[in-house]
TrEMBL record:
The family this protein is said to belong to: Belongs to the bacterial solute-binding protein 3 family.
Listed PANTHER family: ABC TRANSPORTER GLUTAMINE-BINDING PROTEIN GLNH, AMINO ACID ABC TRANSPORTER PERMEASE
Signal peptide: 1-20
Transmembrane segments: none
Protein name: Glutamate transport system substrate-binding protein
GO biological process terms held by the UniProt record: amino acid transport
GO cellular component terms listed in the entry, alphabetical order: extracellular region; outer membrane-bounded periplasmic space
Domain of life: Bacteria
SUPFAM superfamilies in alphabetical order: Periplasmic binding protein-like II (SSF53850)
UniProt entry keywords in alphabetical sequence: Signal, Transport
Every Solute-binding protein family 3/N-terminal domain range: 33-256
Originating species: Calidifontibacter indicus
Amino acid sequence: MKIRSASAVAMLAVASLTLAACGSDSGSGSGDKIKIGIKFDQPGLGFKDGSKYTGFDVAVAKYVAGKMGYKEDQIDFVQSPSKQRESMLKAGTVKMIFATYSITDKRKQEVSFAGPYFVAGQSVLVKADSTINSVADLKGKKVCSVTGSTSVDNLKKQQPALVPQEYDTYSACASALNDGVIDAMTTDDAILAGYSNQAAYKGKFKLVGGTFSTEKYGVGLKKGDKDTCTKVNDAIKQMVSDGSWEKALKENLGADYKYNTETNPPKDADLETCA
C-alpha cells in the first residue's frame, strides 16, 4: 500500500508539472519575461541611463513586444555589443535584437532577420556654424569615426583629401567636435541625429551632405525563427500605419531630423520574407 501511495503521489506530481509547463508558453506574454538585446551607449537609439532605457530602437522593441503580448515590465533589456550579437542569438541569450543591426547577406548566414524597421544611410555631422555643407567641403578637414569602422574609408572614396581621425567611441567624436578638435564626424545618419539631439549638444550640430549608403536596420532573430519573424513584421506594419513609428522617431531623434523619405518608413514589400 505504501508503494502504491508513493506511486500515486509521483504521478500527480508529474501531471502537475506537465500542466504548469503547458500554461507557460514563452511566447504568450502571460507572465513570462522576454529578453531583448539593445545598445546601451547610443543616444537616441539605444541608451541606458540608470534603470531607464530610451531611444528609437527601444521604442520599436517595446511596441513589437507589446503586440506579441508582453507588458513593459515583462521585458528584460540586455546589452548587445556589435561583436556579440550573432553569438547571443545563437545561444538564446536574447529572443530578439534591436540594435542598429544592419541586414546583410553575410549575417543572414548565421541569424535570421525581421524588418527592417528603419533604413539609415551614412552622413556627416558638423558644428551648426560650420562652413562645411557637403562632402566636397571636407578637403583637408579632420573627420572622426570609431576605430575599426569603415565609415571614413567610404567617405575618402568621395573626398580623398580629408584627414581621418580615429577615436574609441562616437561619444568621444561628438565631444571632440563640440570642442573644435575635429571638423566633422561620420557614421549612419540616425546615430549622428541621436547625438545631435542630446541635451548637451542640442542646436550645436547639423547634418550635411545627405546620405550615401543604405543600412537596413533589422530585428535579429535566431536562425530559422519564422514564427517570431512573422509576428515582428506584422507589428512593424502596424506601428507604421497607426503613426507610432513617426512619433517614436521624432521623439528620439529630434523633430528637425530629416530621414530619407524614399526608404522610410519601410513599406510592406521591403520587409524580410521570413522564409
